[in-house]
Amino acid sequence: MRIKQAKFNAIKRQNTLESYASVYSSCSGFKADRRMADGQHKTLEHIAMNVPCYTLDCLPDEDAARVCAAAVRKEGGDE
After folding, report:
1. pTM of the entire structure?
2. Whole-number pLDDT of residue 29
3. By the 8 A CB rule, do 31 and 70 touch?
4. How far apart, in whole angstroms, are the C-alpha atoms of residue 25 and residue 47?
5. Would you say 22 and 54 are in contact if contact means Cβ atoms under 8 Å apart?
6. Any long-range contacts for 12-15 (C-beta under 8 Å, 24+ apart)?
7. CB 66: neighbour CB atoms within 10 A?
8. Alpha carbons 64 and 8: distance in angstroms, whole number
9. Consecutive sets of 10 residues in the chain, 79 residues long: mean pLDDT of each?
10. Judging by DSSP bridges, how do beta strands 54-58 and 2-5 pair with one another?
């Protein structure tokens, strides 16, 4: 999940490439070691392809949490 301050509350599911970039930018690792870098890539690829990732544009208010929760529940089939 990426959170950005905005003048409105809205959530958007990221596509696979956006998800990979989002998760990758939050990871550290020893990329000079080819085996470790390949393992990290495979793990991130699996996450990006199987776990829904979102960008939340939001105000600092309670409604932002509701928008986020509704999207996650809908994705998980909890409606």
Report:
1. 0.79
2. 77
3. no
4. 14
5. no
6. 12/54, 12/55, 12/57, 13/52, 13/53, 13/54, 13/71, 13/75, 14/53, 14/54, 14/55
7. 11
8. 9
9. 94 96 87 89 96 95 96 75
10. parallel
Q: At what angle do helices 16-24 and 34-50 cross, to 10 degrees?
A: 130
Placement of tokens 């939001």 in the chain: 58
Tokens at 74, concatenated: 């809908």
Contacts of residue 76, defined as CB under 8 A and 6 or more positions apart, other chains included, come to none
- Taking the C-alpha atoms of residue 31 and residue 56, their distance in angstroms, rounded to an integer, is 30
Look-up of token digits 């793990």: 43
The DSSP annotation for 29-74 comes to --TTSHHHHHHHHHHHHHHHHHS--EEEEE-SSHHHHHHHHHHHHH
| Four-point Cα dihedral 38, 16, 24, 75, nearest 10 | -120
SS3 category, 13: strand
